[in-house]
Automatic annotation (TrEMBL):
<feature type="transmembrane region" description="Helical">
    <location>
        <begin position="230"/>
        <end position="250"/>
    </location>
</feature>
<feature type="transmembrane region" description="Helical">
    <location>
        <begin position="80"/>
        <end position="104"/>
    </location>
</feature>
<feature type="domain" description="Major facilitator superfamily (MFS) profile">
    <location>
        <begin position="45"/>
        <end position="661"/>
    </location>
</feature>
<feature type="region of interest" description="Disordered">
    <location>
        <begin position="300"/>
        <end position="324"/>
    </location>
</feature>
<dbReference type="InterPro" id="IPR036259">
    <property type="entry name" value="MFS_trans_sf"/>
</dbReference>
<protein>
    <recommendedName>
        <fullName>Solute carrier organic anion transporter family member</fullName>
    </recommendedName>
</protein>
<dbReference type="InterPro" id="IPR002350">
    <property type="entry name" value="Kazal_dom"/>
</dbReference>
<feature type="transmembrane region" description="Helical">
    <location>
        <begin position="40"/>
        <end position="59"/>
    </location>
</feature>
<dbReference type="InterPro" id="IPR036058">
    <property type="entry name" value="Kazal_dom_sf"/>
</dbReference>
<dbReference type="GO" id="GO:0006811">
    <property type="term" value="P:monoatomic ion transport"/>
</dbReference>
<keyword id="KW-0445">Lipid transport</keyword>
<keyword id="KW-1003">Cell membrane</keyword>
<feature type="transmembrane region" description="Helical">
    <location>
        <begin position="270"/>
        <end position="294"/>
    </location>
</feature>
<keyword id="KW-0406">Ion transport</keyword>
<keyword id="KW-0812">Transmembrane</keyword>
<dbReference type="GO" id="GO:0015347">
    <property type="term" value="F:sodium-independent organic anion transmembrane transporter activity"/>
</dbReference>
<feature type="transmembrane region" description="Helical">
    <location>
        <begin position="424"/>
        <end position="444"/>
    </location>
</feature>
């Protein structure tokens, strides 16, 4: 009976546990449903944000692909093109602080949607000058234009030119001067890019922090990596679109294409640059639509309900995080939010990790922005490639390497569960090896094209004086030529001449693209007297070694792009994990502001000024004044372009090393504390180790709704 009694007691005691088990099962089930709901909402936002990143990246990269087209169309130097490119960052500068600080406390998805509409309006504005200014005019000698009047290229006497032709030519010049005000239409391109910058402002600080707030901590790095990777598809399509439009003549649909006497290989060729902006504007409008239907807040993951920050943040944020519990009203007045602005700014700039990483990023982005902005021009001028081929190569080969690198960085962070310290190491190593590879590009350049009077004398020697005196020689002394013209021809001796007149050509046959010049006295200097000294339209091709060097350049450029991009996602995680949670949007906004002001705006300008110093032959405007550059000194351009990039990159590596040193110094005491506490028991040590990687429980024990959006 005693045994039976004991069994009954045990039976009933076991039964009393069953309701608890069911309750636990229900709580786990509800937690699972909430997790699924949370993940579903985050993934919808993730898809919408990825499309917006695609849209803004497409329009931004398309602008980069049209840099040379805009320069030629408006006849402006590279430094002014740099100002136009930097106007996007100026637009960000005007609104970034207000949007990032106050936007985090308002309806973030709808603010992003409004930004997309503004961005599309700016993109449409960029294309407008094409419809209001006159048709594009390029430099061509009258004999190359389809005409029944035959004119000698070498005007030994102006009287040999028919009066009607001279009058007609002068009338065109006068008409061009009357419409010279049309060349100032580049201001609309600048204003449109400025408007694009204003519209793009909320996308990064509000979009990234929205994901980081409502995603599970260990998935945040992968999600951010996915957004950035999918955004790379935008530049791929942007450069491919630029390649397509560069092959189409600028005035396609407005003029008879048979009357165009230049090809897309000519340095004066301008493609249909405006067409891509119309397409990009439509895509930006479509990208903003989903954000008007997304909620202001999503359910928090279970792992973040008990605390508002990650365990790793507690390791590097050493300030006291204990705050009084306050009950916030549903609506917060702007004045109440503004009171905390200066204290928040002081708190942010008091974080040495944030400041050092900010300095490293500013220098790093100075290097990258300058390099990317003028990369198409560098390839065209250094390797003699067309704008269309250059954009195609960048879009199809270079950009996918960047996408793969960014995704690899996010995948490494998730797979190996790399800490903040590990992220700093990965970011530093990526920059170091990337710039080391870039150093090898100094040896992969082409020699200057042989241009008589600019890179070599008319007698074949390389030593040259100033080009203004060098363009004239005994062989063309009997001709009436202008040193300002740029209408290159290729002599049968393989040397390029600035114009048929300066080559001393006495006769021509054919018209348009098929014009052939004969009896060119300057070409005959280096030829045997028995051979006819003839020349054809267009410049000569670069040396035989140049195509091989271009291939080597592409291979190293792809590897370098991948290596530098691996550190992108770890850098984002380092930035997010080393600041207080309620300052994340504000910190990203200040970070973006600093990059815009100190890198995005000045880098294209001073890179453009440096590139302008390597110009050998400037074009001239119809009413006088310097136009766009026609020919650069290849070696000087290579050293200037790559040298600036490497100097800035090397300086950024020093600051990245300082970031790593500070993080190691801060993590050492925490490791000792965890080690001492770990001696209390194996179970406790294991639990804390798991919490260090996966939880958000070590800074504040309490969490209240909407803390991330209310100070």
């Amino acid at each position: 009976m005693e045994i039976s009694s004991k069994e009954n007691t045990q039976f009933f005691s076991n039964n009393t546990i069953l309701p608890i088990d069911r309750s636990s099962f229900k709580s786990e089930s509800s937690a699972s449903k909430e997790k699924q709901s949370c993940c579903g909402g985050v993934k919808i936002f993730l898809g919408a944000l990825s499309f917006v990143y695609f849209a803004k990246a497409l329009s931004g990269s398309y602008l980069k692909s049209t840099i040379t087209q805009i320069e030629r169309r408006f006849d402006i130097p590279s430094s002014l093109v740099g100002v136009i490119d930097g106007s996007f960052e100026i637009g960000n500068l005007l609104t970034i602080v207000l949007v990032s600080y106050f936007g985090a406390k308002l309806h973030r998805p709808r603010i992003i949607g409004a930004g997309c509409l503004i961005m599309s309006a700016g993109t449409f504005l960029i294309a407008m000058p094409q419809f209001f200014m006159g048709r594009y005019r390029y430099e061509r000698f009258p004999s190359t234009i389809n005409s029944t009047v035959s004119i000698s290229p070498c005007l030994q006497d102006k009287s040999q030119t028919p009066l009607s032709a001279l009058e007609k030519s002068q009338a065109k010049i006068n008409a061009g001067c009357e419409k010279e005000a049309g060349s100032s239409m580049w201001i609309y391109v600048l204003l449109g890019n400025l408007l694009r910058g204003i519209g793009e402002t909320p996308i990064q600080p509000l979009g990234i922090t929205y994901i980081d707030d409502y995603a599970i901590e260990e998935d945040a790095a992968l999600y951010i990596g996915c957004v950035q990777t999918l955004a790379i598809i935008g530049p791929i399509f942007g450069f491919l679109l630029g390649s397509l439009c560069a092959k189409l003549y600028v005035d396609i649909g407005f003029v008879d294409l048979d009357s165009v006497t230049i090809t897309h290989k000519d340095v004066q060729w301008v493609g249909a640059w405006w067409l891509g902006y119309l397409i990009a504007g439509v895509i930006s409008v479509l990208a903003g639509i989903p954000f008007w239907f997304l909620p202001k807040h999503l359910p928090k993951p279970e792992s973040r309900k008990d605390s508002s920050t990650s365990s790793e943040q507690s390791k590097f944020i050493t300030e006291d995080n204990r705050e009084q519990h306050k009950s916030y009203q549903q609506q917060v007045k702007i004045a109440e939010m503004a009171k905390d602005f200066l204290p928040s700014l002081k708190n942010l700039f008091g974080n040495p990790v944030y400041i050092l990483y900010l300095c490293a990023s500013i220098l790093h982005f100075n290097s990258l922005i300058g390099m990317v902005t003028y990369k198409p021009k560098y390839i065209e001028q250094q390797y003699g490639q067309t704008s269309s081929k250059t954009n195609f190569v960048i879009g199809l080969i270079n950009i996918p390497a960047v996408a793969f690198g960014i995704f690899s960085g996010g995948l490494i962070m998730k797979k190996f569960r790399i800490s903040v310290l590990g992220a700093a190491k990965l970011s530093l190593g990526s920059s170091f090896f990337g710039y080391l590879l870039l150093l090898s590009l100094f040896a992969m350049g082409c020699e200057n094209s042989d241009v008589a009077g600019l890179t070599m004398s008319y007698h074949g020697t390389k030593q040259m004086a100033g080009y203004e005196q060098g363009l004239f020689s005994e062989c063309n002394s009997g001709c009436v030529c202008s040193q300002n013209d740029w209408d290159p021809i290729c002599g049968e001796n393989g040397i390029t001449y600035v114009s048929a007149c300066l080559a001393g050509c006495q006769a021509s046959n054919g018209s348009g693209k098929n014009t052939v010049f004969f009896n060119c006295s300057c070409v005959g200097i280096l030829e045997s007297p028995s051979r006819s000294s003839s020349a054809v339209m267009g410049p000569c091709q670069k040396g035989n070694e140049c195509p091989k060097m271009f291939l080597y350049f592409l291979v190293i450029s792809v590897i370098t792009s991948y290596t530098l991009s691996v550190g992108g996602t770890p850098g984002y995680i380092l930035l997010l994990r080393c600041i207080k949670p309620h300052l994340k949007s504000f910190a990203l906004g200040i970070y973006t502001l600093a990059i815009r002001v100190l890198a995005g705006i000045p880098a294209p300008v001073y890179f453009g000024v440096a590139i302008d110093t390597t110009c050998l032959k400037w074009g001239s405007k119809r009413c006088g004044g310097r136009g766009a550059c026609r020919l650069y000194h290849s070696s000087t351009l290579r050293y200037m372009y790559l040298g600036l990039t490497l100097v800035l990159g090397t300086m950024s590596i020093f600051f990245s090393t300082a970031v790593l040193w500070v993080l190691r110094k801060r993590s050492a005491p925490q490791d000792e504390t965890l080690s001492a506490n770990g001696e209390r028991g194996t179970c406790v040590t294991k639990t804390r180790k798991d919490n260090f990687v996966n939880s958000d429980h070590l800074i504040q024990a309490t969490y209240w709704p909407e803390k991330e959006t209310r100070l």
